[in-house]
Design brief:
This protein has a single domain, classed as 2-Layer Sandwich (Aldehyde Oxidoreductase, domain 4), CATH 3.30.365.10. The chain is 26% helix and 27% strand. The chain has helices at 57-76, 128-140, 151-159; strands at residues 12-20, 23-34, 39-50, 82-83, 86-87, 105-110. Strands 1-2-3-6 form a 4-stranded mixed beta sheet. Strands 4-5 form a two-stranded antiparallel ribbon. The longest helix is centred in the middle third of the chain and has 20 residues, at 57-76.
Length: 160
């Protein structure tokens, strides 16, 4: 799906696998990095899922895509700060979430099988951060081992 192995100038690709309650997914993230700001840009995201027999395949693909959107936001932006035992952010205006302008192309595929259904749930979320982290490593040779993969965390890893 992703054309894995094809060179892409200025971009890195990362692969991740997730097993969520017996459902399986494999994902690839293609990213670029603004090294000066530390901001990761996800250009494309591919995910294939095997949840067993899919009763309503189009709904399964839609759920998978929505889970990827949530996973991207969690991996790149979402963070609560705690000070003196209380959350610092007062409401949603102080809590960053992924914007439409930062959305990559999401490519989904469903493994067709007659195996018993194992379910979807948040299957699409689990591989997002690892795929992006592996793509960053592919691009820079550096690991970021905290979430979110914020510009500050990326710049700190690049400086190490």
């Amino acid at each position: 799906m992703s054309g894995w192995g094809r060179k892409r100038a200025g971009r890195g690709m990362g692969l991740a696998f997730a097993d969520y309650h017996g459902s399986l997914s494999a994902a690839v993230a293609e990213i670029s990095l603004d090294a000066a700001s530390g901001k990761i840009k996800v250009h494309d995201y591919w995910i294939a899922a095997d949840p067993g027999l899919a009763i309503q395949p189009q709904n399964v693909l839609a759920q998978l895509e929505g889970a990827v959107v949530w996973g991207l936001s969690v991996a790149l932006l979402e963070q609560l700060d705690v000070k003196d035992g209380a959350i610092v952010q007062s409401n949603f205006h102080e809590y960053p979430v992924l914007r439409m302008s930062d959305m990559p192309q999401i490519h989904t595929s469903l493994v067709v099988t007659q195996a018993p259904p194992t379910g979807m749930g948040e299957l699409g979320v689990a591989a997002v951060a690892p795929a992006i982290g592996n793509a960053l490593f592919n691009l820079t040779g550096k690991r970021v081992r905290q979430m979110p993969l914020s510009p500050a965390a990326v710049k700190k890893a690049l400086a190490a």
